[in-house]
Amino acid sequence: xxxxxxxxxxxxxxxxxxxxxxxxxxxxxxxxxxxxxxxxxxxxxxxxxxxxxxxxxxxxxxxxxxxxxxxxxxxxxxxxxxxxxxxxxxxxxxxxxxxxxxxxxxxxxxxxxxxxxxxxxxxxxxxxxxxxxxxxxxxxxxxxxxxxxxxxxxxxxxxxxxxxxxxxxxxxxxxxxxxxxxxxxxxxxxxxxxxxxxxxxxxxxxxxxxxxxxxxxxxxxxxxxxxxxxxxxxxxxxxxxxxxxxxxxxxxxxxxxxxxxxxxxxxxxxxxxxxxxxxxxxxxxxxxxxxxxxxxxxxxxxxxxxxxxxxxxxxxxxxxxxxxxxxxxxxxxxxxxxxxxxxxxxxxxxxxxxxxxxxxxxxxxxxxxxxxxxxxxxxxxxxxxxxxxxxxxxxxxxxxxxxxxxxxxxxxxxxxxxxxxxxxxxxxxxxxxxxxxxxxxxxxxxxxxxxxxxxxxxxxx
Length: 461
Fold this sequence. Notes:
This protein is of the alpha/beta class. The protein has two domains: 4-246 and 433-458, Aldehyde Dehydrogenase, Chain A, domain 1 (3-Layer(aba) Sandwich), CATH 3.40.605; 250-414, Aldehyde Dehydrogenase, Chain A, domain 2. It is 39% helix and 24% strand. It is built from 16 helices and 22 strands. The protein has a seven-stranded mixed beta sheet with strand order 14-15-16-13-12-18-19, sandwiched between helices. Strands 9-8-7-10-11-21 form a six-stranded mixed beta sheet, with helices on both faces. It has a three-stranded antiparallel beta sheet with strand order 5-6-22. The longest helix is centred in the N-terminal third of the chain and has 19 residues, at 38-56.
């Protein structure tokens, strides 16, 4: 089975050299995906370009209704879609269904775009001249999606792009191509005209072709920091708008007044959920002052966690094993290797200057770091090369306020283990976690996927 493209409303086999696709749960092959090529990307962009005039002239409220219908179709087909995601990605069916629930929320949020697309009008800005500011779609938007949320994460971008009147070309992860294209047959049923939504499978060659294509107006990507930097540089050099979300190492700061059992439950759920393969997972527990009761509770929960889903690939497992080699390991996930690409949770003791804290580890590994004060904790957060998210657990409102104001990250959690904003609120990181000037979701997404036009008019009889 070869993962398909969707070009101009027609599903077709993906092109290019075969890339094997394996099931993380077993390590066995489940199919393949084409590596993609510039010619296929060109056909997809041409289809999107041809569909653009009709879609951009469709009233925004009608576009919103199509998004809502797609949300309903996702709900109606949740069983089949969840099974595809679970097979492709390895996550549990419960996690796959949760992904679909969030995807529906994002579609429903994007359907509110008509209220945010309103422009401005000033009468007699100069005597006899009226000024109007309008928002227009930017054109063809390219979306490069990651493996960890094959449907939801790309949808966060393309739902708003479509709501604003753009057409899109989506490039799913080559590691989860079937989950990434699972919505293909639902777009027409929801009411999207042919060519408004296109899917091109592939790897690096397909991404580079999208970055270089003269008819692509913007590129949105979620991936590693290295990939984000490369894509942002290439797309920007080609004169495109670009937003590239990169890696993360998200700290969770625990003050001494926080309940150790509550913190332990929050940080282990965050760090080990989906085997740590979430960009908002808390991967560093920062204890302010010695907190042996908290550390003991974390270790107990880690040892009791036995049902982690597999990681995405053998290379991902080997990367985790490499990090654990030579580290001060308190709980060793290598002792819990399971079928396929499964590995157990690990807890590692580290110091604030450990080089292990400056690279992304996209896996079920929690580092524990001690600092003496809240100021030291904030300094640690701000000294990270990443700036995606950070959380604090405390009963002290003044401490939480200080942390919220001074922590230099894009997303803050207060007594929240996963600092994920809701679908209506802008989302984005800082430093190596995000390259670009405009983030995703809500009003910021409308800013990214529209351009402003100023019209000055003198009316004469």
